[in-house]
Write a structure and sequence with these properties.
This protein has about 400 residues and is of the alpha+beta class. It has four domains: about 100 residues, Rossmann fold; about 60 residues, Dna Ligase, domain 1, CATH 3.30.1490.20; about 110 residues, ATP-grasp fold, B domain (D-amino Acid Aminotransferase, Chain A, domain 1, 2-Layer Sandwich); about 80 residues, Regulator of K+ conductance, C-terminal domain (Alpha-Beta Plaits), CATH 3.30.70.1450. It contains eleven helices and 20 strands. The protein is globular. The structure holds adenosine-5'-diphosphate (ADP) and magnesium ion (MG).
Length: about 400
């Protein structure tokens, strides 16, 4: 039997379905949940003593925090979560993760360096750059999105490049930032919502837009059906959530010709739609997950490492013909040079804490922690990545 947890649910709507279900699920499991109104905190900063007040009283001890931060209070809400992090309280989602997920450009920028399918997207500002940008993502019809829209509001399908350009200019003149995205027509008004908790997709559904609508959001009349995700979709959803820094997330994916295309990762995914559709106890799964993880609050590695002067983290590549190819991790001598291999990336596989007897191969990438001076010599000169052929025809511009 797990010990009883004091769980703070940060929410501005104590009676809404998700908050109510989470509180009930925690109570059913013998925990002590409290719904805390996110906007009633005071954040106190003092040397070595980050502290929190709730309704002007000193906040008592909490074992874990489950943030449900609405889009309209992101700034204050993430500040409260960040304060809990500074106080070493376990939070299901980090403030950085929530911030990343709130901005569609920021989240796609973060995902784009990884092997995760995303719809081709571009962000441009100058009037003269708009039409070329639209062409680069495949031309009209094209999707225009507000960076911080939710529930389908702020997503437009422009039939022609001219219309797209006019919409973008109008929005920009109202000081709204927009991104331009390839319209994934083959998804046919359908998308997939995968509910991720930790390393698993615990539930998933397909949402189908109705009538002439291309947006499948439930708030836009989308109809849901429970589905079983295949390995590729599940793996993509879990990795996308983890890359964003979220342990509980709703990952939205289009069904593209080449597999899943992640559109966005939601940090406070609603429970009502997915629990009703799948008949699964997702609130219970979240509470169980928190109980199992509560001893592992997020550590901001960069912040902590800064204190170890002269040490840092870097990625070392093992190219073809390198002296390290064929040697084991131990024989590589890295350890003798005060370099620890944290993770080995090989093709699509990720090997955490590789054992010392494991031989290295050409193409391996080693995520290392060690003395920067020692690691410097092992980092090859920056070579510009080859661009995909499509861009070839265009002359480079500075
Ligand atoms: N690139 C795209 N191609 C096709 N349909 C899209 C595309 N982007 C969004 N949609 C449709 O619009 C809906 C809302 O888009 P999304 O980016 O998730 O914004 P929101 O945060 O408002 O839900 C999606 O669920 C999907 O049905
Ligand atoms: Mg969405």
């Amino acid at each position: 039997m797990k010990p009883k947890m004091k769980l703070g649910i940060l929410s501005c709507s104590p009676h809404c379905y998700s908050t109510r279900r989470l509180r009930e699920a925690a109570e059913e499991r013998g925990h002590d949940p409290k719904v805390l109104n996110t906007l009633k905190f005071g954040i106190d900063l003092r040397q070595e003593e980050p502290d929190l007040y709730y309704r002007s009283k000193h906040l008592s001890h909490y074992d874990a925090i489950l943030p449900r931060i609405g889009a309209s209070i992101t700034y204050f809400g993430t500040a409260v979560v960040r304060q809990f992090e500074q106080m070493d309280v376990f939070c299901t989602n980090t403030s950085a993760g929530i911030t990343n997920s709130r901005d569609k450009l920021r989240s796609l920028q973060i995902l784009s360096r990884h092997r995760i399918g995303i719809p081709e997207t571009t962000f441009a500002r100058d009037r003269k750059d708009l039409l070329p940008a639209i062409e680069r993502v495949g031309g009209a019809p094209v999707i225009i999105k507000l960076l911080e829209g939710t529930q389908g509001v702020g997503v437009v399908l422009a039939e022609t490049a001219k219309v797209a350009e006019a919409i973008i200019e109008t929005l920009q003149s109202a000081n709204q930032n927009v991104l331009i995205q390839k319209f994934v027509a083959e998804s046919k008004g359908r998308d997939v919502r995968a509910f991720v908790i930790g390393d698993h997709v615990v539930a998933s559904m397909r949402r189908v837009a109705q009538g002439s609508e291309f947006r499948s959001n439930v708030h836009r009349g989308g109809v849901t059906e429970a589905i079983e995700l295949d390995e590729v979709y599940s793996e993509t959803a879990v990795r996308a959530a983890q890359i964003m820094g979220l342990r509980v997330a709703g990952v939205d994916m289009l069904e593209g010709h080449d597999g899943p295309q992640v559109m966005e990762v939601n940090s406070s995914p609603g429970l009502e739609g997915i629990e009703t559709c799948t008949q699964l106890d997702i609130a219970g799964a979240i509470v169980d997950y928190i109980a199992a993880q509560v001893n592992f609050p997020e550590i901001d590695i960069r912040q902590r490492l800064t204190v170890s002067r002269g040490y840092g983290v870097t990625e070392i590549h093992i190219p073809e013909g390198s002296e390290y190819v064929g040697r084991t991790v131990k024989e590589s001598g890295l350890h003798d040079r005060d370099i620890n291999v944290l993770t080995l990336y090989r093709g699509t596989s990720v090997i955490p804490n590789p054992r010392s007897a494991r031989p290295l191969e050409a193409g391996d990438r080693l995520l290392c922690f060690g003395k920067l001076e020692q690691m410097r010599a092992m980092i090859p000169e920056k070579s510009r990545k080859k661009r995909r052929t499509k861009m070839k025809e265009l002359p480079p511009q500075d």
